[in-house]
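## tool: complex_structure
## caller: assistant
## args:
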Amino acid sequence: MKTEVSFTLNAGVVVAELAGHELLIDLLRDRFGLTGTKEGCGQGECGACTVLVDGRAVNSCIYPALEVEGRQVVTIEGLLGPGNDLAAIQRAFVEHGGIQCGFCSPGMILSARALLDRIADPSEEQIREALVGNLCRCTGYVQIVESVRKAAEAMRSGGSGGGGA
Amino acid sequence: MTEPGGTQRPPAPAGCGEKGDPRLAPRYDYHRPRTLDEAWSLRSSVEGSRYVCGGTDLIVRMRSGRESPRALISLRSLPELTGISMGEATEIGAATTFTDLLEHPALCARYPVLAQAARRIGCPQIRNVATIGGNLCNAIPCADSATALIVLDATLRARSPRRKRDIPVAEFFLGPRQTCLRAEEVLTSILLRPPAPTGAGIFLKATRVYRDLALASVAVFLEIGPDGRSCRKARVAAGSVSPVPLRLRSVESLFESEGISPETVSRAKGMAREAIVPISDVRASADYRRHLTGVLLGRAVETLANRERA
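## result:
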């Protein structure tokens, strides 16, 4: 049994025909080629598969794809600005050592983005609380928290939060 | 099977998803009814079907082969299950996510104990999807919302095509992953009375790392008299330490009859350790859970009593 869903994916409206058991991560990676979204644990624990649905971070590895009907989905690719320029938050991660192996980065950055969309000047505690569902095995988190803080500063002083979202 | 974009997918091996390989998604149908009527009729007509709301636990269990319903019926977008209304009483739609709940300032101000429990559930990604009704119907002993709702004397409203019934939350759970709901019945909302102005509640949870299921949790609601010692009403519940989220009636009667003092708190801790039946598992031993429950109970009551004196 296939069902058609229509939703906003990054900048545009898309349509896909889906079987009931398909998960959002597979829809994004296999159908739309958006492989920036990573599958780590496949159990909603590690946060590598985090994407934004209606502005909220969700684990796409346990999110039924059919539930995106009529919603707005943003992946890491959706943060890029015109000419594929990195968004302020992506640049901050690159410049402040928030990225090492890079596997957790797309999810980490989207969780941070969801935070900064709600709270422009978060405390360290708020940053850590917002990222508690994203595991990183490289950085020890210090540089990641620093990257989010720097991104918040850059975005407050008028830097681009990125496109799409 | 050719997907749009021309990619070829190999056919799934026979028995895919039944052997517990999390990489191989199990096959099932997924229905998104628009009304409660439609949900009921799907549940009775689709063989091997189950209700699901946020699915943050069920889908993980299905991916690892621990459960394999043939079809899921999503209650996520049912109008009958959404929204929070606060009048004389408060009604929380069962499909309310924990994030929605935490972003409702009036609700959190009226029921801080519920907000404290909601805040400690999962992580943002989970709270954005997981629902209060799902947490209750999933009925695991560590369900954080359950202990908070027990001490608030919450009532759960369930509806089936034939009737509507209200169930006190402490009677809702029959065992691990087992509730008193019948096949087609749907938990539609949680009802809360306004708390007494003199009452205060607290939820405490001990975890191995900050974000984890509870090793043990305790929720307490007390109406302490102006003398700071007498107790007009006590509600105490413990999580993760018995087959169901457990109301500790013996502890409640002790506080109500003898008041709050270092001596009654110490006896209450002993009674709580007696009343619970924890298991040993990967997270903690039964002995440690018993110890933790006493510690959390003591801390919870002392915090509320000190707040009253302040």
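## assistant note: The first strand of chain A starts at residue 2 and ends at 9. Chain A has two domains: 2-78, 80-156. Handing back to user.
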